[in-house]
Automatic annotation (TrEMBL):
This is Zinc-type alcohol dehydrogenase-like protein. Belongs to the zinc-containing alcohol dehydrogenase family. Quinone oxidoreductase subfamily. Gene3D superfamilies: Medium-chain alcohol dehydrogenases, catalytic domain, NAD(P)-binding Rossmann-like Domain. Residues 16-331 form the Enoyl reductase (ER) domain.
Amino acid sequence: MRAVGFYESLPITEEKSLQDVEVEKPKATGKDILVRVQAISVNPVDTKQRRGAPPTSSDPKILGWDVAGVVEEVGSDVELFSIGDEVYYAGSVTRAGGNSDYHVVDERIVGKKPETLDFAEAAALPLTTITAWEALFERMKLSLDPSTNKGKRILIIGAAGGVGSIAVQLAKLAGLYVIGTASRKETVNWAKNTGADETINHYEPFRQQLQGSVDYIFCLNNTDQHWENMGEALAPQGYIVSIVEAEENHDLNVLKNKSASFSYEFMFTRSMFETEDMIEQHHLLNEVRKLVDEGKIHTTLTDRGGPVNAENLRAAHEKIESGKTIGKIVLEND
């Protein structure tokens, strides 16, 4: 089958950084389903894996952890899906990605595709939505019931990116007052169009721009740069959740007097460790499907990048690495 992969970590400007390859079509066994891939989305994790996680064998490494497609085959232990089901999911970073014609994935981290979206629109959602949902409703312990969050304020750092675009929508749905960070006119407009009540500039001190403190902070960009700003802006007993690795050592004592909490969110944790609650991502995606079909959540697709091939994926990676993308880039199989 056709796929896009790489054999060594190279700058995206190199033609061999991502290549069109032919690999064996996988088979579904156990709890796996085989999906005929209709559309894939590109995320920062793809660029990080390409740059820093080269293949460990002579086979090409295949990236891509946002997929929408159709179930073509099911393993002997599959209970949740049947052949012909339309699905969407983010997969597992410990297995081959979905930048290919077919892909195998554990059914426990797969959801039914929203009926009101086409495959490209659906492929824009899984990874970022799981990340935002787990951060808000598991790490921060928020409720989706807006009546429980009256008067609560959240600051989303990087509100116009892939995760930010869905986090704003979910936070508004939960009844929070949403403040997003954005530094350009187009990102400010996008953040507000997705539901942000106001925006501030993440290149300037937060506290001076905010009218009071915030109860929650979701950091989607540069934990190192924003650490002190976050500590100052956070309300007593507040929560900070970040998805960005810290390269520096930070003083947790800035949170002590406020009895504040800090945690990381990594949406691959459940699949990586095959946790007992791994199936929660199946339930999560099905709940999001319902919200999408009810018109309460909207796709974050902004760029249809053409067919899935090496040339188009290199272009998508280059855009992601620029740090200036808005929403999600999606490619489709022909």
